[in-house]
Design brief:
With 255 residues, the protein is mainly α. The protein is built from 12 helices and no strands. The longest helix has 24 residues. It is flat. The termini are far apart.
Length: 255
Amino acid sequence: MTIAVNTELGTSREDAARNRDLRFLASPLLGVALIAIAIAQQASGHIDSDVSWFLTLAEKFLDGRFSPDDMVDPNPPIAILSLIPAFPFARLLHAPVEAVLVALVLVFALLSIGLCGYILRFGASRSAQDRGLLLNGAIYLLLVTPALIFAQREHLALLAMAPMLAGLAAGRGKDGPSRVVRLLAGLGCAIAISFKPFFALAVALPALAIAWRERSIRVFLTLEMLTAGAVSVLLALSVVVLFPVYSAGITAFGL
């Protein structure tokens, strides 16, 4: 009898400790703390050398000084073009462009996380605690863990593609996100693919798994997928037509 009582007490204490830990991990205060850590991390650190180099090229492009000799990267020029918005803000505020870039990426990340949270609400029903865990996990993954590769191409691509991945995770019920949200998810996916074309595998592979499970290709015919495909093709064509400097640089690079 004593052993049984002790076992029950031990189990209840373990359950209470586990619930306490889950409440902490799902708490809004932890989310705020993680955002503060991410900001402090970037304020005390430095921009990666790749990002610094692309900032230099973006400024040259913005000022009309870009040449084929500057195109030494075999990937599409979206990595350069995506950094251009930081310069008007930096010049307006008379602030370092690196700090402005970090601020813009932080805002972009929070918007991406918010959009993912909205999309996931149309999937399986979740408790407030589960939603808190997902939110804080996303904040940690997308803001804290990038650390020294913050604002790198891969980081920006993940932020842009996250809403599409959230849509695949949520599935397709009778109700779903608005058409505008679905278009934004598809557009973000196309932008991510334009950084490096093989990033399409991040969406294609889970979509194939869904198609196999459902024995249907409907997942590839959604508004998000059709938008992603069409915009990806348009972006690829625009690089060839509007940025001949990229083709010239790639030829000079020997690829």
